[in-house]
Description:
By secondary structure, the chain is mostly helical. The chain contains 5 helices and no strands.
Amino acid sequence: MEVLKISAIALVGVLAALQFKQIKPEYSAYIAFAAGLLIFGYACRIFYVLSGEVGQFQQLFGEEQKYFSILFKVIGITYLCEFCSGICKDAGYGGIAGQIEIFGKLAVLFCGMPVLLAVIEAIRTFGTW
């Protein structure tokens, strides 16, 4: 049912923005931004519920639960950067959108460093057998 709500918000937002694009282009951008914020709010709510459900998995894995938090950080970073980049592209600021995408990639790389270090440590430990 949530997918239908999101789809309806997107379609109404796009159609309303198209109506204002010829008359008042700035209103078109505001409408598109508002629709994007509504969709982003729904996504954040779903992400919050999902993080609670995954908490049960964390109890099963014990020490490796830190990897779940890394996973959720990475998902949050990618979604937020994609959202902001899309808004910038729609507004005609492709250069800023590209910088947001680069920042997002670097942030994901930075968040993933503990996983990479754990893999390297496992390989190093395995090599000493």
